[in-house]
């Protein structure tokens, strides 16, 4: 029967796409877990956001492997789109909330790889190529999926091994000189800022 033949050709590819999407979710989850502590120290809300995202990515990855449903696919797409959108906004114009509101963050290896894996998740779940020649070859060669999963694992390991550094360290507030990158001075200390204030504006 034509319908059965088409179904038999589509299901193997659908299963491989599901495995690839799950692997990407797990890779992004591992990267997010690695930075939770750093973000918790900087801003509690940001740390809780990454914790929530990491948990959801792990749950959705398992759900895709156990039993794919339209709801699981939609949630995985929406979550990956949300995190990729937050990353793009924070690296271009800056987020309008938090201690560094309006300040674009620098682009690093870990966050770039995580966003790439999220975009791969979307592509694996959205793009349907069951009729394409490349897709048919992938069905005939299942090791292509294994190689993709291995590549995702390698990317996650590279992200974890990259030096972790904040894009913009949170400034310390000095009660006398305002925002400064130096620790606050002891009470009663005289700073150059105090001298400039008494002498008036300098040119």
Question: What does this protein structure show overall?
Answer:
- Helix content is 69%, strand content 3%.
- By secondary structure, it is an all-alpha fold.
- It folds into 2 domains: 2-168, no CATH class; 171-203, no CATH class.
- It has a two-stranded antiparallel ribbon.
- Helix 1 (2-42) runs antiparallel to helix 2 and helix 4 runs antiparallel to helix 6 (143-161).
- It is globular.
- 23% of the residues are buried.
- Mean pLDDT is 75; it is low at 1-11 and 164-182.
Short account of what is shown:
The protein is an all-alpha fold.
How do the helices and strands line up, and which of them pair or pack?
Blueprint: H1 2-42, H2 44-66, H3 70-92, H4 109-126, H5 133-140, H6 143-161, E1 172-174, E2 178-180, H7 192-199
Antiparallel strand pairs: 1-2
Helix pairs in contact: 1-2, 1-4, 1-5, 1-6, 2-3, 3-4, 4-6
**Strands of the biggest beta sheet: in what spatial order?**
1-2
Principal-axes geometry comes out as globular
Radius of gyration: 24 Å
Relative strand content: under 5%
